[in-house]
Amino acid sequence: MKKVVFGVMLFALLFTGAWAGGKSDAPAAGAGADSLKGTTINILLGTMPWCDFIRPIIDEFSKETGINFDLETQPETPLRNKIVVELTARSKNIDVYSCTPPQEIPMFTKNNWVEPLDDFIAKSAGYDVADFIPGAIGGSRVGGKTYAIPLFTERPVLYYRTDLFKEKGIQIPKTLDDLLDAAKKLHDPANKIYGFAERGIGAGSITQFYAFIYSFGGNAQSADFRKATINTPEMMKAFEYYGEILGKYGPPGVLNMNWGETLNLLNEGLVAMRIDCDSQFPPALDPAKSQVHDKIAFAPFPEGPAGFGAWNVAPWALCIPSFSTKKAAAWEFIRWATTKEMSARAFKEGGQFATRQSPWQNPSVTAALPPTMVSAIQKTLTSPHAIERPVAIQVGKARDIIGVVVQAAIQGTRGAELQKIADKQNAEFQALLDEDYR
Question: Is 136 helix (H, G, I), strand (E, B) or coil?
Fold first, then answer.
């Protein structure tokens, strides 16, 4: 028997900082499928496009395994609140849930709220965890252990106007220096063409800014995430580059722009280049939404002085809570939903950019995508960068803190004055990390 529940359930966020530890009571990984027949697992997912793919076919899971399920989906904010409430209470009501690894895995692992999956993976013949995109699976790992399996991915790519590049005789930028030079040559505000568009809205800019951080060899935190490092020389170079290209060659009002605004400007034919997530491409190629739909192509994120900084991130992944009493059956669902075959199917039938590498090498799977998009993404697949936001419990506040420096740079602050701002924000970020990691 199965039950599918949809709708919004409002839950108060009861988590107040009291850490709830959990002792694993997992059945032996790799328990025979026959022994799990008749088990019913509770699955809690955020409403996302992947759900639209999985919902019509999830009965196949029960037919193949004999495991029943209750599926509940909720919008992102109520979902996050409910998960925290349930896990704080050490509830056994959830067996599989969806999380955003870079945002939640640090808190969940710190609280012992999430089960390591490595033993299950090791005993799942043919699962081939090495096929996952390194960055996508890397974001689900802490201390060498895997705590979640990603469902789909996204990464930054360059959107550019082929007609303007041809008119100016400009080559596709391969480096950040090339990008800056192209932005300068393409910038023509008198004719309402702006050289480059990116997020400038402070906190909203941070995920995209991380690719520039890596390109200059920087990082916002130390390797153990406990030390703030947003005022290092490498970070300052990233801030100044981002500030220069947007401050000089960006559109008016860029300080208030998030991804939606920059995409609209591209579609209106007002910007020559834009960098943002590949998953946003459909409106840019839609004749009903874009005035330049037939003039848009894609390229990999340009390399920086420290190499290729583009990241691969899984916005959603599947986890098993530490308090579930049905972990083996829960793993069977995760395994079934994330095999090579299912990843390719979700890509081809559901438009979900695969977290595995093999579908990206299969022309029959990628056939519906523009060739320039496929080649741009293929170059990014081997990037090790798995994080595109601060790794902290108070992620929103951390993004706000770093965003202050981003906006100061866009407004033209440079040198010692920008360093002074970065030092101040670094101290604030350190105080936040001390609180989160105490």
Answer: helix
Tokens of 436: 């989160």
- Place 33 in a pLDDT band, splitting at 50, 70 and 90: low
State both tokens at 350: 């559901």
Kindly report, as residue ranges, where domains of CATH 3.40.190.10 are found in the chain: 3-153+313-380, 156-310+392-436
- Give CATH for domain 3-153+313-380: 3.40.190.10
**37, two tokens:** 């027949």
Pairing relation of β-strands 149-150 and 317-319? Answer: antiparallel
At residue 431, φ and ψ (nearest 5 deg) are -65, -40
Q: Please give the model's pTM, rounded to 2 decimal places.
A: 0.87
Cα-based angle 277, 281, 285 (whole degrees, multiple of 5): 160
CA distance 266 to 283: 10
Question: What phi, psi does 102 have (nearest 5°)?
Answer: -65, -25
Beta carbons of 309 and 301 less than 8 angstroms apart: yes
Cα(372)–Cα(351) distance, integer angstroms:
17
The enclosing H or E element of 54 equals: helix 49-54
Please state, rounded to an integer, the average pLDDT across all residues of the chain: 91
Nearest alpha carbon to residue 331 among 191, 98, 121 = 121
* Residue type at 10 in one-letter notation: L
Q: Is 149 helix (H, G, I), strand (E, B) or coil?
A: strand
CA distances from residue 226 to 148, 381, 393, 437 in whole angstroms, order as listed: 22, 28, 12, 7
Q: 349-402 pLDDT, tens per residue?
A: 999 999 999 999 999 999 999 999 999 999 999 898 989 999 988 889 999 999
Q: What is the mean pLDDT of residues 108-124?
A: 94
Element (H, E) at 37: none
Which residues, other chains included, contact 232 with Cβ-Cβ below 8 Å and sequence gap of 6+? 218
Question: Parallel, antiparallel, or unpaired for β 141-142 and 145-146?
Answer: antiparallel
CA atoms of 310 and 278, how far apart (whole Å):
12
What backbone torsions phi and psi does residue 313 show, to the nearest 5 degrees?
-125, 140
Give the number of other CB atoms < 10 A from CB of residue 23: 8
Q: Residue 4: pLDDT above 60?
A: no
pLDDT digits (tens, 9 = 90+) for 186-236: 999 999 999 999 999 999 999 999 999 999 999 999 998 999 999 999 999
CATH of 156-310+392-436, one of 2.60.200.40, 3.30.70.20, 3.40.50.300, 3.40.190.10: 3.40.190.10
